[in-house]
Amino acid sequence: MLSSDGSDVRVSAGLVIPAAELSWRFSRSSGPGGQGVNTADSRVELMWDAAASTVLSRVQRERLIERLGDRLVGGVLTIAASEHRAQLRNRDAARARLAALVAEAVAPPAPPRRATKPTRGSRERRLQAKQRRTDVKRMRQRPTD
User: Most buried of 38, 59, 81, 97 (most Cβ within 10 A)?
Assistant: First the structure.
């Protein structure tokens, strides 16, 4: 069963996925739920066509496709949530997971690490610690005559 929900997904301050781009599918969930697990469609699948999305810039789309390429099927990102007994809580969980996944994928790469050398003090402290360890082990040995 496909349906739509009226809630947009806020990824970051400048990026909001409109509800019109999301599609939902509901099915029966395994796991907790008692007698209702056999009748209620509490499992949620949230699908978003990232490749055809209008809210992403060209750079964001390229980054997202590069980083989430193995999770995309035909450009569509699917997230399943079935950890809660209630469908509404699973919808919220799927929205939150989508927002976190997209935010991480479209974030700019971290600046490259600048190589540094250990300071003279840190080298001396390391060597002193090694010498203390050597002295401790030497004291544990049997005395030689």
Answer: 81
